[in-house]
Design a protein that fits this description.
The complex is a heterodimer of chains A (222) and B (142). Chain A has two domains: 117 residues, Response regulator (Rossmann fold); 68 residues, no CATH class. Chain A has nine helices and nine strands. In chain A, strands 3-2-4-5 form a four-stranded parallel β-sheet. In chain A, strands 1-6-7 form a three-stranded antiparallel β-sheet. In chain A, strands 8-9 form a two-stranded antiparallel sheet. In chain A, a hairpin with a 2-residue loop joins strand 6 and strand 7. Chain B is α/β, with parallel strands linked by helices and 142 residues long. Chain B has one domain: Rossmann fold (3-Layer(aba) Sandwich). In chain B, strands 2-1-3-4 form a four-stranded parallel β-sheet, with helices on both faces. In chain B, helix 1 packs across helix 4. Chain B is globular. The chains are: A alpha/beta (222), B alpha/beta (142). At the A-B interface, helix 1, helix 3 and strand 3 of A face helix 2 and helix 3 of B.
């Protein structure tokens, strides 16, 4: 899922200074799972905005709504009428959701309530870890399911580097060395062939250069 | 809007604090009448939204009262409630609201006198804070 976390409120408050009627739009997708931008968080933020504005002596309306996914045009558009009743929208979707809502009403200010952080998962309750950097050319089949792009601090293609010590990364002793983990896993499986090869430089052209990436599926396109 | 006595909303767990409040009444203990007790099935039920809403609708302070640690009927509801209250207090500070307006307490069903004491302490604390400026109630739909 896309993992996100709430923006610090003072940063949001700065952007809401002139607002009178705020729509807080939650998203029922990834950000609901990581408990940053679902229905509950939207309701909390709406109450928080009202409380903050009231304390400043200039009451503000704040209403919470949620759609199953802001990254679907139909659901994003379904928020149009509610957006029309507000003068500012705070989207609790990931960056994709913010962008889609801004496209629904290009004349309106749509603010991000979250900082979209990474592609990851829940490793224990309340702890989320990055697992995918969406580079567009997955190599997990060769690396034992451990991603050197997302989990090696240097994104190394032939690791580990000299900074790996006792299975830990030199950037932070709390971080496991991804290449150490890859080597251990592949060795345990008896699949050391890949480790003995010198991998050619990774093709980063799929990773985001050349503008926004786009996939066209002819079988699905209308 | 001003009022002479601060309004305190107390979210009380059915298994302990609500019974303690009942016991305080049964014991004829006197405590400030400005408290509004809201029974909840567990202090873990008290989402931050409920506390913020109480403050938005005119409460001067909110207390969340759950079972003694280790005694939660649902095992960890009171521990979760405490962490949520702590997180909410940090948010309150960012919103410009005194965090001491919100507090979590732990007590057992047998602690009627302690309930009365907590209400008195919270009331005294709220009296010492500047009066709140809050807006009129707006219905926040979802």
């Amino acid at each position: 899922m896309i993992v996100a976390q709430a923006k610090p409120f003072p940063e949001l408050a700065q952007m809401l200074q002139d607002a009178r009627r705020v729509l807080v739009a939650g998203c029922g997708g990834c950000v609901a799972v990581c408990q940053a931008g679902g229905e509950q968080e939207a309701r909390i933020l709406a109450e928080a905005i009202r409380l903050w504005a009231g304390e400043q002596g200039r009451p503000m309306e704040a209403r919470a709504v949620v759609v199953p996914r802001q990254c679907e045009p139909e659901w994003a558009q379904s928020l149009g009428p509610a957006m029309d009743e507000a003068d500012v929208v705070v989207s609790l979707g990931c960056g994709v959701g913010v962008g889609f809502l801004a496209e629904v009403r290009p004349g309106m200010r749509v603010l991000p309530g979250l900082n979209t952080s990474f592609g990851g998962g829940t490793v224990s309750p309340g702890v989320f870890e990055e697992r995918c950097r969406m580079c567009g050319d997955c190599v997990l089949g060769r690396t034992g399911g451990i991603c050197p792009v997302a989990r090696c601090a240097k994104n190394l293609w032939n690791g580990p580097c000299g900074g790996s010590a006792d299975g830990r990364c030199e950037v932070d002793p709390q971080v496991s060395c991804a290449w150490h983990q890859i080597a251990q896993r592949l060795t345990a499986r008896g699949e050391t062939g890949f480790l003995e090869e010198i991998a050619p430089p990774k093709d980063w052209s799929t990773a985001g250069d050349g503008g926004p990436r786009r996939i066209v599926r002819e079988d699905l396109a209308s | 809007m001003t009022r002479s006595e601060p309004l305190l909303v107390a979210f009380c767990c059915y298994w302990c604090a609500y019974a303690a409040a009942d016991l305080a009444g049964g014991m004829r203990l006197s405590y400030p009448p400005n408290v509004r007790v809201v029974e909840v099935p567990c202090s873990g039920r008290v989402e931050p939204e409920l506390i913020l809403r109480a403050l938005n609708e005119g409460a001067d302070g909110v207390m969340v009262a759950g079972c003694l640690e280790g005694d939660c009927h649902y095992q960890r509801g009171n521990l979760r409630a405490r962490r949520r209250v702590e997180r909410l207090r940090r948010l309150l500070e960012e919103l410009g609201v005194e965090p001491e307006r919100v507090e979590m307490f732990n007590l057992s069903a047998a602690m009627g006198p302690r309930f009365a004491q907590i209400v008195a302490e919270m009331t005294e604390r709220l009296r010492g804070l500047p009066p709140r400026k809050f807006q009129a109630v707006e219905e926040a739909g979802a």
